[in-house]
Amino acid sequence: MAKRSIFLRQGDVGIRLNFSGKKGEEIKNRTVAYGESSGHLHRVDGGRVFNSDGGVMIAEIPKGETGALRHTYKDQTVTAEHPPILIPAGEHAVVIQREHNYYAQAAQQVRD
What we know:
By secondary structure, the protein is mainly beta. The chain has one helix spanning 102-109; strands at 7-10, 13-16, 31-34, 40-45, 48-51, 57-61, 67-73, 85-87, 90-96.
């Protein structure tokens, strides 16, 4: 039987638990996404965050600790829109949901 993957979501930010990948440059402020209109951000508290291949980031939470994905404004005030999500110890993929406009793509495909 295939191992089930656990996926946590906070708005357009998702965390796939127990993911191992090649870690690139560390993201020192641990901010994984910025809001496009309200000035909010999604940040991992605890552990470290790294860029990785394919637009994925890796959150590394040390053994024996619990991290949190927080939805705040730039001044660190927590927003009411999304409660914090607890992240267990381990390495986890952080992925940002992308919007795809099929109509725009279809219009592009018909151009000669």
